[in-house]
Amino acid sequence: MTTARPLHYQPTATTVVAPLRIVERTRLSDTDILAREVGVPSADVDHPTEDVAQAHHNSLRFQLDSHAEAAARKAPVQLLDHLAEWGFSWTSIANVLGVSIPAVRKWRQGNPLSGENRRNLAQLVAFVGVLEEDYLIRDSASWLDMPLAESGFTGIDVLASGHILELMQYAAGRINSHDLLDSALPTWRDNQDERFEVYEAPDGKRAIRMRTESEAEWH
Amino acid sequence: MALEPAADPCRLYVAVGPEVNPNRPLFTGDVLHDVEIPGIGTTAAIVIGHPCSFRGRNGRLAERTPVTSVTPHQRIPAHKWSNGYFNRMPLPDLPPTGDFHVARLDLFGLALTSELSDAERIACLSHAGINQLQQRLVFHQTRLEVPTTKFHEAFAHTYEEADLLEEWNTELEGIERDTASSFESWIREGEPSRQSLLARPQDRAHIRRIMRQEIRRRITSGR
């Protein structure tokens, strides 16, 4: 029989003092604070109840939507300029938004976007804002380009698969990279093939070769 | 493991028909009209040479470039490409007709690069498309199955460099005379060079950022 763990911290008799609530940054909005508060149980409890998980999910969505509403007030060209300045590739932007690269090029030239694409573009900019302001992740474009769980998949792939809230949980340190990929890209392990490795050939260029048996076992 | 199934056109191509950016450098996976392949004839063709093999120092292209013939083909369900048709690479919805085509991996030759540069480009494969082309090529020629993720891990930096060159060419068109050369000089600067930093995924955003700053600087000083 398992013992249910309390959902919340239970103070002992000697610690029954109203805990001092420290908010790190006064710039946090009410929605940011709400998201953080609801986020606490899932970090402390191994198996949050469905209600808690749903509340947490809703709070992340609320947090993202409130940032997206602010971003959506800007012109699409401005939003694309922001992403370019942050170092996003046009390929990544197109992948995340589910459109072609020529479509993004046309938007940069001032061609109109559908309402859905404009909302998605604003959401991507908002997501970067959440990463940098709320989760203190610097250089988010680089962070999103980094391979996850020693696979070839990146945060951009997770965003392109539509699992933005799971990526927020990962950014907040509430889930690890393996859980993130299991959730967003369930077949990601099928693409891991430890028989091969990438190495630098004697001419200084990259190449692919088979691992030796002992190397493959080690991996 | 099996080979990748045929990809949706929206995932396979980065641009088709009039969407192809004329400022994009000639690259692996480009499909061109009316190319003379020695011993095969004049046909639509796809560039199969690895970027490392046909782009030499200073970005100069080799005199000849490996290509294969592209021909119309009956439409075959996507999943069947995983376990058959190994001498072909599926190219669905190819312009101008939008019909199903294949790259005939057994009908290859060395085309004159100068002719390729002047030919009409009708499609460019995406990164995923190039990885799939490489996977089928290697399997056809060696019977070795290599996961597409390994091709991406090994060569994504060359795809990134081609994308950056396309952006550089496009933004500086009409401002600088030989944009391909100026890009080559810029990307090779530094110690380690910017080009070598592209091999590290976490450094690519930095290179994109400073390239865009450099483009703005050149546009301002060129006016």
Q: Any overview of this molecule?
A:
The complex is a heterodimer of chains A (219) and B (223). Chain A is mostly helical and 219 residues long. Chain A has helices at residues 30-44, 50-72, 76-86, 90-97, 101-108, 115-134, 140-145, 155-160, 164-171, 177-184, 213-218, and strands at residues 196-200, 206-210. In chain A, a hairpin with a 5-residue loop joins strand 1 and strand 2. In chain A, helix 2 (50-72) packs across helix 6 (115-134), helix 3 (76-86) crosses helix 6 and helix 9 runs antiparallel to helix 10. By secondary structure, chain B is α+β, with helices and mostly antiparallel strands. Chain B is built from eight helices and seven strands, in the order αβββαβββαβααααα. In chain B, strands 1-7-2-3-4-6-5 form a seven-stranded antiparallel beta sheet. The relative contact order of chain B is 0.17. The model of chain B has no long low-confidence stretch (mean pLDDT 93).
List how many beta strands of chain B DSSP finds. 7
Tell the overall outline of chain A.
globular
In DSSP terms, counting alpha (H) and pi (I) runs of 4 or more, how many helices of chain B?
Answer: 8
Which segments of chain B are poorly predicted (pLDDT under 50) over 5 or more consecutive residues?
none
User: Any idea what the shape of chain B is?
Assistant: globular
What is Rg of chain A?
A: 21 Å
Low-confidence stretches of chain A: 1-26, 40-45
Percent of residues of chain A in beta strands? under 5%
Mean pLDDT across the residues of chain B is 93
What is the N-to-C succession of helices and strands of chain B? HEEEHEEEHEHHHHH
Defining key terms:
heterodimer, A: 219 residues, mainly alpha, two-stranded antiparallel sheet, 2 strands, globular, disordered N terminus, B: 223 residues, seven-stranded antiparallel β-sheet, 41% helix
